[in-house]
Design brief:
By secondary structure, the protein is mainly α. It has one helix and no strands.
């Protein structure tokens, strides 16, 4: 019986760690998406400014 309890606790700890890491990974993926969007907006602003300077 104690061996089964230890095995069960180990499985629950492993599931908790996997779930925790999955949540963290999901958050980081969302941050990456946000950063890519912000970079795209900044590049577009730079391109507009460069076009205005080329016209002059």
């Amino acid at each position: 019986m104690p061996a089964n309890m230890l095995f069960c606790i180990t499985i629950f700890v492993a599931f908790y760690l996997i779930f925790s890491l999955t949540v963290k990974l999901s958050n980081e993926a969302q941050k990456n998406i946000t950063l890519v969007q912000e970079i795209s907006l900044l590049k577009e602003k730079i391109n507009k400014i460069e076009r205005k300077l080329d016209e002059k």
